[in-house]
Design a protein that fits this description.
The complex is a heterodimer of chains A (300) and B (346). With 300 residues, chain A is mostly helical. Chain A contains eleven helices and two strands. A two-stranded antiparallel sheet of chain A has the order 1-2. In chain A, a hairpin with a 2-residue loop joins strand 1 and strand 2. Chain A is globular, with a radius of gyration of 19 Å. By secondary structure, chain B is mainly α. Chain B has one domain: Orthogonal Bundle (ABC transporter involved in vitamin B12 uptake, BtuC), CATH 1.10.3470. Chain B contains 16 helices and two strands. Chain B has a two-stranded antiparallel ribbon. In chain B, helix 3 packs parallel to helix 8 and helix 3 crosses helix 12. The radius of gyration of chain B is 21 Å and the shape is globular. Classes of the chains: A mainly alpha (300), B mainly alpha (346). Chains A and B meet through helix 4, helix 9 and helix 11 of A and helix 6, helix 12 and helix 15 of B.
């Protein structure tokens, strides 16, 4: 039975799921905005983040929510290596080259992860809050999801402060607008690029740790989130953090409510891959009506 | 218009002679190897993927990089098999109908895509594959679900030998048509659009129409490749819509050499060879097994890691693909011959 309360609950849980997409899309947006780089292996960074957080929780016995920081740090390090040894080498050449490099990285990450973690198929990061729900009248929501929303909000506020209030943020924005001019003004754009990529990767790592707390995961989970992340920044407009927030929430809600409605026995009884498809249907409709995205500026 | 002149020009070009030589070689090869596995699973697959990768490459030639070409491969495969089983159409007709249906759907997707910039288009095509998969999973009884269903065959079993020559004929015809499309005025327009769309529009090219044309031609050949793929595989499964199948023609084209006619063919040969012969090294790689106790076989993963690294290294160190090696060797040889001639002249 589809009830208003059930639907409201699906929406609320969708908002929580959307938070993970927001982190992912913001990271992509940052990297794309500053470096004009399209990294299709971003979702693989999320996957690595999830596994690192898992190891930190299970082996080192860390609190799952503290393991988020471990994941952010290690994935940021991976990001530094990727920027320095792969993406930097094709900077300024044809745009497609970056996409090709990231496709190669997808193969590498996915299979390295399989080699190391294949026995941990569909695991979850054990959280002491798992299964505990806060009930608000007829609606209930997991404490894990509430915490995830809070963490994402804190990270986003931190990011906005970093880009708007610090000197480094100023350098980032300058590089994003015109890298040549920024270089002439004495900004070391190589350093800006490497830090930007590291921050973007760290956001993916945090998203991965949260993903691992909320859902079960395996080495192959990276592919769809990447594409959804891109779809979100297309919807929300390139380079805009509020756009990524709106897009991410929209996707989380759309997916979760589709799953809720279709799983109802009176509709289909089984959502299949429709929750994934609905986000792309949304994207295609938006792009047909507005080829530059919902909040998109003209240009890119 | 000056179709004849264009044709003559194409025939006289060096690449065309290479294509003819390659064709003759490919025609003789199965007579020499005579192994069912090599002919049926390696050589035929090379031909099928050569068509598939060339079709992707043509679309990329017009500046449109698709990340969902598997959709059209799959549509071709399913359409050819379904028309034969459900309507009793002869299979060879089914393969063509598969190509046409694929082109028809390609036209619709193209209509939605022509206004989009490069990687917006990549997203839409990728999303389209996901949507098709979702739709098909609703009709498992009709489409066979994960297990798929066996296709009727073109020839009585075992068909690997005649099928190879059918695939060869299809591949030759497709490559010639795509070669013509690249070298003719059409190709010039594609190239202009790829380099700078607004400038192309300024000199009077109807960019929308040409982009759409590239889409239709490309998806038609992807559909044909799908029909042949189903034949060489003998079953069709929904797993054909997997993103890995979408990335395959891209990887082949890049490794071989993007925006060249021979690139995707070289790429198809290289990748199919890697996929077919590298597994032979698996038993040696098994020495590394104690390092990774979680998996039973380390070979498949190590191979894929190798493939990924290979792609990255090619992009960084050889951005024009393996074909640039051949060009360099050819130039080097010519220079040498030139030197010899100069010496003789003195």
């Amino acid at each position: 039975m589809i009830t208003p309360a059930g639907l409201a609950e699906a929406l609320l849980w969708g908002v929580a799921n959307g938070c993970i997409y927001i982190l992912l899309a913001t990271g992509l947006n940052l990297i794309f905005g500053v470096m004009k780089l399209v990294n299709f292996a971003h979702g693989q960074l999320l996957m690595v983040g999830a596994f690192v957080a898992y190891e930190a929780t299970v082996i080192a016995g860390l609190n799952p929510y503290l393991s988020i920081f471990v994941a952010m740090g290690s994935v940021a390090l991976i990001g530094v290596v990727l920027e320095k040894f792969a993406f930097r080498r094709v900077r300024g050449t044809e745009k497609l080259n970056e996409i090709f490099i990231s496709l190669g990285l997808i193969y590498v990450f996915q299979n390295v992860a399989t080699l190391f973690w294949a026995e941990n198929y569909n695991i979850r990061i054990p959280s002491s809050l798992a299964g505990l729900n806060l009930s608000l009248g007829s609606i209930a929501i997991g404490y894990d999801r509430i915490l995830a929303m809070v963490i994402v909000a804190v990270i986003l506020v931190g990011l906005v402060l970093l880009t708007k209030k610090t000197k480094f943020g100023l350098a980032m924005r300058a590089t994003s607008q015109k890298s040549d001019a920024a270089m002439l003004m004495g900004i070391n754009i190589n350093r800006v690029y490497i830090y930007t990529f590291a921050i973007g990767a760290a956001l993916a790592g945090a998203a991965g740790a949260l993903y691992g707390i909320l859902f079960s995961f395996n080495p192959a989970i990276g592919a769809l989130p990447t594409i959804k992340g891109f779809a979100i920044i297309i919807l929300g407009g390139l380079g805009s953090i509020p756009g990524a927030v709106v897009g991410g929430l929209l996707y989380g809600i759309a997916e979760n409510s589709t799953a809720y409605i279709l799983t109802d026995p009176s509709v289909l009884g089984n959502a299949g891959s429709w929750p994934d498809a609905i986000s792309f249907i949304l994207l295609i409709i938006v792009l047909i009506i507005r080829p530059t995205g919902l909040f998109g500026k003209k240009g890119e | 218009m000056d179709f004849k002149a264009e044709l003559l020009k194409a025939i006289r070009s060096r690449k065309f002679i290479f294509l003819i030589v390659a064709l003759v070689l490919m025609a003789v090869l199965p007579l020499l190897v005579r192994s069912e596995y090599i002919i049926g699973s390696v050589l035929t697959l090379m031909l099928v993927y050569a068509i598939y990768a060339s079709s992707w490459n043509l679309l990329a030639y017009s500046g449109q990089g698709s990340l969902g070409h598997a959709a059209f491969l799959g549509i071709g495969a399913f359409a050819s098999a379904l028309f034969a089983t459900k309507l009793g159409l002869p299979l060879i007709v089914g393969i063509f109908v598969g190509g046409l249906i694929s082109a028809g759907i390609g036209l619709l997707i193209g209509l939605a895509c022509v206004r989009l910039k490069a990687w917006f288009l990549a997203m839409v095509t990728f999303g389209f594959t996901v949507i098709i998969l979702a739709i098909m999973s609703q009709f498992d009884s009709f489409f066979g679900g994960m297990i798929g269903f066996p296709t009727p065959t073109l020839f009585p079993q075992p068909q690997y030998f005649p099928l190879y020559y059918v695939a060869l004929a299809f591949a030759a015809a497709s490559v010639v048509v795509i070669f013509w499309a690249m070298k003719s005025k059409l190709g010039l327009a594609f190239k202009a659009i790829r380099e700078n769309e607004s400038e192309a529009k300024m000199v009077g090219i109807n960019t929308g129409l040409y982009k759409l044309l590239a889409f239709v031609i490309s998806t038609f050949f992807a559909g044909l490749a799908g029909g042949l793929y189903a034949q060489s595989n003998l079953t069709v499964q929904v797993s054909i819509f997997d993103p890995a199948f979408s990335f395959l023609p891209l990887i082949m084209s890049v490794i071989g050499g993007l925006a060249t006619i021979e690139g995707p063919i070289i790429g198809a040969v290289v990748i199919v060879s890697i996929n077919s012969f590298l597994p032979l090294t698996d038993k040696y790689l098994q020495i590394l097994h104690p390092l990774f106790p979680g998996v039973t076989q380390v070979g498949p993963q190590l191979r894929e890691i190798f493939l990924g690294m290979f792609l990255i290294l090619v992009v960084i160190f050889m951005p024009k693909g393996l074909t640039s090696l051949f060009h360099k060797a050819y130039d080097y040889l010519r220079k040498d011959i030139g030197k010899v001639k100069k010496l003789e002249g003195h």
